[in-house]
Amino acid sequence: MNLFVVRSHLDAVLRPAVRALARLPVSANAWTALAWAAGIGAAVLFIQGWWAVGIIVFALRGLLDHVDGYVARERGDTSVLGAVLDDLADRYVIAVFVLFATAHLAGPFPHLPYVAAFAVAGTMVNAFCKPCVYVETQDAVRRNGKITHPMDLVGMFGSAEFLIYFGIPTLGGALARNAWPIVVGIWLTAILSHVSLLQRLVYVARNYGRGRRGGDPRPAEACEPEPPAGGSADAAENDQGLPATHPG
Q1: If both were cysteines, with which of 72, 140, 142, 246 could 149 make a disulfide (CB 3.0 to 4.6 Å apart)?
Q2: DSSP 3-state assignment of 147?
Q3: DSSP string, 195-226
Q4: Which of 88, 118, 113, 87 is nearest to 99 (CA)?
Q5: Helix or strand holding residue 143 (H, E)
Q6: H-type helices in 138-179, by residue range?
Q7: Which helix (H) or strand (E) holds 146?
Q8: pTM across the whole model
Q9: What is the pLDDT of residues 218-235, one digit of tens each?
């Protein structure tokens, strides 16, 4: 279970601000680019140790990330490019946040780069697990221009959770003028992203184990029609209602 299940409630809270921004003559992909830039800008503020300002820009980035999807749906401006950019921006920004914060804190906390490496690896592979399942099973569906799958609700770590596991400790560190909460946030990101990855792998093993792919437990070759006894492959095709073809 993750925050995806309550996303509609969270969207309702932000809807007034999102609607106001969506009136501007800016395309959905441009909003995605702005959110991406805001995320990198916040990370640069983090590397300078300006945690309070960085958190404000970080929150702005989250708002902009909602605007692009809203604009795409309301204007019918959905596209594969937009969906790809949106997903890539989330992962890119998470990695930059963790690494830039670690770069600022590595001096007093020499162990932190190693933790950050596991944090970035965990968040990236945890996210990559979903499109792998989409492609391998081919049982995802598209609703309102966005691909959905039951696995979306599996795992305790995602972009929204990152705001909690990393953002809240960073806010606490900024208010307390103490780096320890930020260190804790990086540790939480490293640990919980791997817990989430394990949850998703267990889901895949339970639902698609033993060679099951695309919702069919049989191997692909077993799905081919067998010719009847004493007959030919052409006859089998006729049994399927398809015209048989003969040479010459």
Answers
A1: 140
A2: strand
A3: HHHHHHHHHHHHHH-TT-BTTB-S-GGGGSPP
A4: 113
A5: strand 141-143
A6: 159-162, 168-176
A7: strand 146-148
A8: 0.73
A9: 333 333 444 444 444 343
